[in-house]
Design goal:
The chain is α+β, with helices and mostly antiparallel strands. Helices cover 50% and strands 17% of the residues. It has helices spanning 2-25, 51-83, 88-114, 128-140, 144-171, 177-186, 202-214, 243-251, 253-256, 302-313, 320-323; strands spanning 30-35, 40-44, 199-200, 222-232, 263-272, 278-286, 292-295, 329-336, 346-350.
Length: 351
């Protein structure tokens, strides 16, 4: 609120200062230029200005504020690109400046109306909204075209300033949080990237595997990495499927179409003791969509592994019915021993 009050004066003085500079540029003498907290008295001889110059006098104030707002928005965008940060105080400053830029023609009109500047007086300055009216009234004995042109100009300025403020508020203000909220409300669920609760990155998995290869226990234990590929196939291509399974398969036919032939990779890290006993240390699943999640608990059989895969896949796709109908699985298992021993490749088909 303090910024809004402060920028009232910044907006007011920038508006009239730009008009004064324009008059100095075209060499029109200014008889009075006095600042007040609520307005500025800018008096000059209107008859010395042509119609086009008076039109510029109407729009030069709001255009200056729009140029200032656009400059601040560009500075904000540049800081985000270069430094990925921007002071919150300046962000609020841009919002307050944008608000007054949009409301500037209306604020000036209200103050001028209260001060009685809509008429043509030698002692008082003429309101910006009435300048073109009196110009056309003197030239054509009708001020209606001047009113229509003024309304059209102010409408265009309103749309320009509103667009700049809207784009800034949507995409840049507070690191674009409003755009994030807008996309979350209106976006499709499949367009969002939401990691699974137990998901890890490929780099982290690679680091875990390297550490496993280097690990040595106090009693001579080492760790071995086993990699198994699970290829999921369709029910209908195999005989002996129950009617209940076929019915459940038909219900999820559309969603399952994209998963047919998908491969799920199971990566296990075992601690190998000197006696040959293998103890599960950690294991991970690489799902068909590329997500890598860590699974917990020992897997003594394939059914328990399927349950782990079904739980991890629940948030990615609606395939629970497919995963729990015991679809035929072709299992290819390849084991890599970090102890320097050659592991035997195991290929098995399980139903």
């Amino acid at each position: 609120m303090l910024l809004v009050v402060l920028l009232w004066f910044v907006r007011l003085y920038l508006h009239y200062l730009s008009q004064w500079l324009f008059l100095q540029t075209i060499s029109v003498p200014v008889t009075k230029f006095q600042l007040f907290p609520h307005t500025v008295e800018l008096c000059y001889q209107n008859s010395l200005l042509q119609t086009s110059e008076e039109l510029i006098m109407v729009v030069v104030g709001p255009l200056t504020l729009n140029a200032g707002l656009l400059l601040m928005v560009l500075i904000r965008w540049g800081c985000q690109q270069l430094f990925d940060s921007f002071p919150s105080f300046l962000s609020k400053f841009i919002i307050a400046l944008g608000l007054w830029t949009v409301l500037d023609p209306l604020a000036v009109f209200i103050v001028d109306s209260i001060l009685g500047r809509l008429g043509n007086s030698v002692e008082k300055p003429i309101a910006d909204a009435a300048k073109l009216y009196w110009v056309f009234l003197r030239a054509e004995e009708s001020g209606i075209p001047g009113v229509l042109i003024t309304v059209m100009l102010y409408t265009i300025l309103f749309f320009i300033s509103s667009t700049v403020l809207y784009l800034y508020f949507l995409r840049l203000h507070s690191e674009g949080w409003l755009l994030d909220v807008f996309q979350r409300i209106h976006g499709e669920e499949g367009t969002f990237f939401v990691p699974l609760d137990l998901e890890i990155s490929n780099q982290e998995l690679s680091y875990i595997m390297k550490r496993a290869e280097q690990w040595r226990g106090v009693n001579g234990e080492r760790r071995m990495v086993a990699v198994s590929d699970y290829i999921w196939k369709d029910h209908a291509s195999k005989p002996g499927v129950s009617s209940c399974d076929l019915q459940r398969q038909d219900e999820s036919l559309d969603s399952a179409a994209t998963w047919r032939g998908g491969t799920t990779v199971h990566i296990s890290v075992y601690t190998v003791h000197l006696s040959g006993f293998q103890e599960l240390y950690r294991h991970f699943l690489r799902l068909p969509d590329g997500a890598i999640v860590e699974a917990f608990g020992d897997i003594t059989g394939e059914s328990l592994l399927c349950n782990e895969m079904s739980t991890a896949q629940e948030r990615v796709s609606e395939m629970d019915s497919v995963l729990h109908t015991s679809s035929p699985i072709k299992l290819r298992e390849r084991k890599k021993s970090t102890a320097g021993r050659k592991g035997n490749d195991i290929v098995s088909d399980k139903s």
